[in-house]
Each structure stands twice: as structure tokens, then as C-alpha cells.
User: What shape does this take?
Amino acid sequence: MIRMNRGAARARKFLQDIGVDEITEIPMHLIVSGLGCTLIEEPLTNADGKIIRGKSKTLIKVDSNIPYEERKRFTIAHEIGHFLLHENLEVHNENSNTLNWFNNMENQMQRGIQENEANEFASELLMPESKFREEVSGKGFSPKLLSEVAERFKTSITSTVFRFLNLDIRPLFVVFIHDGKVKYWKKSPDMWGWVKDLNKLPPPTDSVAFEYVQAEYEFIYTGKDKQQPIYKSTWFDLKENQEDSDFYEYCIPTKQYKTIISVVWED
Assistant: This one.
């Protein structure tokens, strides 16, 4: 079933308006110019992207120093979302906070619903729900599948993880860790269990995330070993007399930012 918020709905309408099912093979500069905007890649200070509305022209800028094309694509798609959804937004900068999928209530209030709408727009534009579901149908969740789907849609692994999560395609539990401590977590509605109170604390010592913190965010596992067996009790509180069960954990470390995205699921 297709479920949309305002951002996703606008992205679907945009795809219908230009007569395509997806934009995977269309260069982003053509998408931007088709809207009557100008895309500029240049070094930006403390920003991944920026939108500037003028009287006769709108500029969409993306930081040329971003090392990954997938992140550039998401940043541009996010700015297109602002252009189509938020007419009163004249000048706006994007950084790792506004593009971050993790949002607690305080941050949501500070940044407003516009950022969430722009993220949802970008996600639907780059990974249309119908196409995404078609791509993963009948396939078990794994790091290999994540990589294949990310390559298919030219998106980052992180964006792809959250597409899985937000569409509730598989029961997942996703944790964001920064500088050795749990910052936020989200789980899909079908992921049952009480999450341990770990906010602002180091990840559990028996978790894979803890191993990556100890390794100072260097990659530890490769290939099939990327998904490591753990127990449900690693991240979840078990009820009295409840038996433990086998889970898997896969971590995506970023040494530059001292962050870890940890994905937990049951086979």
C-alpha cells in the first residue's frame, strides 16, 4: 500500500508531471534546469546545499567538496523539494543536521516540518515507493541487498536503510551513534520489543556497534561477515520468562564524522 506525506505526494506528482516513473538515469542538472532553476556546484562553507530565490531566477547550490555523488544527488533532490513545496523559503542552507534522517522532537521543533517534508520528497523522488517495493520484493534483508538497491537507485547506503525503515518493508531497528554514544534510534512498527534506555550512553558492550567504537570507526567486517549474529537482548529488554532470540547487526561507520549507523533485524 502506498503511504505518503505531503513531501512524498509532491514528489509523485512531479514524476507524473514530467512523465517518468523514476529519474535514476536522468542527470540532476537536467531536472533542475527543467524547473527553470540553475544548478551550481561550488565549495560551500558549513553547508551541503543551498537554495536562493531571486526575482527572476532560483539558484540551487551543492557543495563541490562532497566526496560522494549519491550524497550530492540527495542534497539536490532535497533542495528541489524546498523549491516545489516551500515558496516562502527565499534563502536556505542545508547541512548534516537538516539532511539527517534522525529527528528527535526538539530538533523537529527547531527546524520545522519543512526539513522533514524536503527529506521525504527527496526520498520519494530518488527511490519511488512502487519501484523500491518492486526491487526488494521477495528478497531477505541483508547488507548485500542494501548495497544492490543503493546502486540501483544511485543513493547512499544510509538513505536506502531509511527507505526500508520508513516504508516498513522489513522489521528493522536503526541506531545513530555519534562520538561513541547513542544519539537517537528508530524502529519500524513491525519490530516488536522494548528498546533499552541507551540514549546518550555507549552502545551495549555485546553489540557490533561497540566493536566499531573500539576500532575508532574503522571498517572491521567485509563481505558476508558484515552482518554479525547477536541476541535480541543486546538492544532490547526482554520480559520476564521471555526467551532470547537470534538477531543480526550491520554497522555503517563514518570515521570522518565519528558516526555509526547500526541496523538490527531478525532473520
